[in-house]
Design goal:
With 156 residues, this protein is mainly alpha-helical. The protein contains 10 helices and no strands.
Length: 156
């Protein structure tokens, strides 16, 4: 779990090759996938999902399956979460204010951004730093995502 929390993809891949238990939880009930997603390590989250880790609606801090799928760029899992009723505009409690659109913008996940916008994600929502998804994408220099958000109506 420590490797996932720190975003150490190489170490995570090593543990996955040794058949690490993807359902193991720490004393707070968090899985490696939860740690990776909550820390914004989208490549690690994607590797864990590809290895069979299941997004869990019981994640601490208010993270949803949709957010986990968005941070990993897993559009199929995001569609499944939306079909199951995940709120496209749900916001995390810890850290406060992140939506699936925020985490997808932070991870540079264009396909996830498209899906979220198609499902009426609120591009004006602000996180605890008062940043919109557009501000995050601009800061991270994800020009294609900036264009997508601006075409949807987002403004600085």
């Amino acid at each position: 779990m420590c490797a996932a929390l720190k975003g150490n993809l190489e170490a995570v891949q090593f543990f996955l090759s040794k058949k690490a238990d993807l359902t193991a939880r720490d004393s707070h009930g968090r899985t490696a996938l939860a740690h990776a997603a909550q820390a914004g390590h989208s490549e690690v989250a994607q590797a864990l999902i590809k290895a069979g880790a299941e997004p869990d609606e019981r994640l601490v801090g208010g993270w949803t399956e949709l957010m986990i799928a968005a941070v990993a760029g897993d559009v199929a899992a995001a569609k499944k979460a939306l079909a199951a009723g995940d709120d496209v505009n749900a916001a995390t409690k810890d850290p406060p204010g992140y939506t699936a659109l925020h985490v997808a913008a932070n991870g540079g996940r264009e396909d996830a951004i498209r899906l979220l916008l198609e499902n009426k994600a609120d591009f004006t929502a602000k996180d605890f730093n008062h940043q919109t998804p557009l501000a995050i994408a601009t800061k991270r220099k994800f020009d294609a995502i900036v264009d997508l958000l601006q075409k949807a109506g987002a403004k600085e």
